[in-house]
Amino acid sequence: MLSKKQRQVADAFFHSSLSDQQIINQHNISSDELDDWLENEEFQYELDRLCRKNTLIAKCILSRYAPIAAMQLANLLDAEKEETAGRMALALIDRAITNLKEQTLINQEVDNPFENIAPSVARQLLNDLIEDDNS
């Protein structure tokens, strides 16, 4: 069974902005003591539990706000400054390529054919795709 101090230290890794050394200092433990705890199965389980909990919370937040952020990025395609619109187009394309890599069942490398494309060309490509979807 974990001690109160071990639970506090584990919690501090996930719920504070302190560095590892600051957590060690704050809880009056040595680096060696922390190393021993990190080898302890119960402490590892607690860290894993907190990690899973935070991952679930992050997924919920992303699923709620990612569509809003994507729409705001897409709206920047109509920005008056060509450079801003082009950069947003490249960001959207890059994100789509990254998602494709993450969703690929076989963990193979997916080349990004748009890596060296000019921002103005990326903007035009995305605008053409939007127009095709709307027609």
Which terms summarize this structure?
single chain; mainly alpha; elongated; 135 residues
Protein architecture, described:
There is one protein chain. The chain is mostly helical. It has two domains: 1-65, no CATH class; 79-135, no CATH class. It has six helices and no strands. Helix 1 (4-15) packs parallel to helix 4 and helix 5 packs across helix 6 (119-134). It starts with a helix and ends with a helix. The model has no long low-confidence stretch (mean pLDDT 79).
How are the SSEs placed, and which strands pair?
Layout: H1 4-15, H2 20-26, H3 31-39, H4 41-75, H5 82-103, H6 119-134
Helix pairs in contact: 1-4, 5-6
Q: Can I get a quick summary?
A:
With 135 residues, this protein is mainly alpha-helical. The protein contains six helices and no strands. Helix 1 runs parallel beside helix 4 (41-75) and helix 5 packs across helix 6.
Structural class: mainly alpha
Main beta sheet: none
CA(first)-CA(last) distance: 63 Å
Report the strand count: 0
Tell me the number of structural domains.
2
Give the rounded overall mean pLDDT: 79
- Low-pLDDT ranges: none
Q: Which strand-content bin applies to the residues?
A: under 5%
Figure out the total of helices: 6
Q: In which range does the helix fraction lie?
A: over 70%
General shape: elongated
Rounded to the nearest angstrom, the radius of gyration is: 23 Å
